[in-house]
Amino acid sequence: MPETPAFALRGVNCAVGNGFALRDVGFELPTGYVMGLIGANGAGKTTTIRCLLGMRGIDSGEIELLGRRVPGSVSLRQDVGVVLDHTYFVGEWRLAEVERTLRPFYDRWDGARYRQLLDEFGLDPKARVKNLSRGMAMKLMIAVALSHRARLLVFDEPTSGLDPVARAELVGIIGDFLLDEGHSVLFSTHITADLDRIGDFVTLIHDGRVVDTGPKDEILDAYRVVRGGPDELTDLIGVELIGARRSPAGVEALVRTDEAGLLDGRVLVEAPTLEEIAIHIGLSSARPALRTRTRGAAA
């Protein structure tokens, strides 16, 4: 019997307004892994997360979170910790007050664990939320999530504006969290370097649609970056240029690996980074066709 995924979205459609909508969004994450949700600002990452968490209704489709349908019981939220790019606590609260306020809402709240995490993260219980730096506020949200024993951590652009030290610390915290095989992470970001060390699976979203989803290594293997002179990469047969960038100096584009062999041998073909894949897909005016991938564990 297949293991229940940490979450799954199947054929999700959601009209947001101003002409934007999620269209047939579908991807899932096996329990015990990290999924990177990648896309440019406005691609639909935050809307997808809101739908997953039951914060926004959907027009059609199906969402499963930790083995239960969404929307579901309010108790489901006890198993999910959410870390945003801004703190959602009252600015005047001291960190000790954060615990006293939140504790009644969580059946598994562990006060000793919260105080231990504050100490480990270098957070003063007497400090006020409004006086925390971006990195410290992120650590506070993580401390809260870990103190109510969340099984799934959802990060929505948590490292935007953070310095490299704070970003490295976050990677370490996530690594510790995943020592428990029952824990999983969804990490939404447009800073793909955050996923180089911790990402197991990747979902690329563009203009409200999933472009590609699967194990990170398979995503990287599926594309190639090609570079040529100003007059090259034109009138191609059987090759789709994704997000081509042309200049007087030359042209650069993304192509699928199974099409790269059809190119002229004079052009440069290289393995891409996640950042290059995300950039070229973000530049694409048309939606590249979705490729279905095996949802097994990443290598």
> Into which percentage range does the β-strand content fall?
25-35%
The parts where pLDDT drops under 50 for at least 5 residues are 286-290, 294-299
Count helical runs. 9
Domain count: the total is 2
CATH superfamily of the largest domain: P-loop containing nucleotide triphosphate hydrolases
Q: What's the β-strand tally?
A: 14
Rg for CA atoms? 21 Å
- The rough form would be described as elongated
CATH architecture label name of the largest domain: 3-Layer(aba) Sandwich
Distance between the termini: 22 Å
Largest sheet: 6 strands, mixed
Average pLDDT works out at: 87
Lateral arrangement of strands in the main beta sheet: 6-7-8-3-9-10
Indicate the CATH topology of the largest domain: Rossmann fold
Secondary-structure element sequence? EEEHEEEHHHEHEHEEHEEEHEH
Fraction of residues in H or I helices: 25-40%
Structural class: alpha/beta
In CATH, what is the class of the largest domain? Alpha Beta
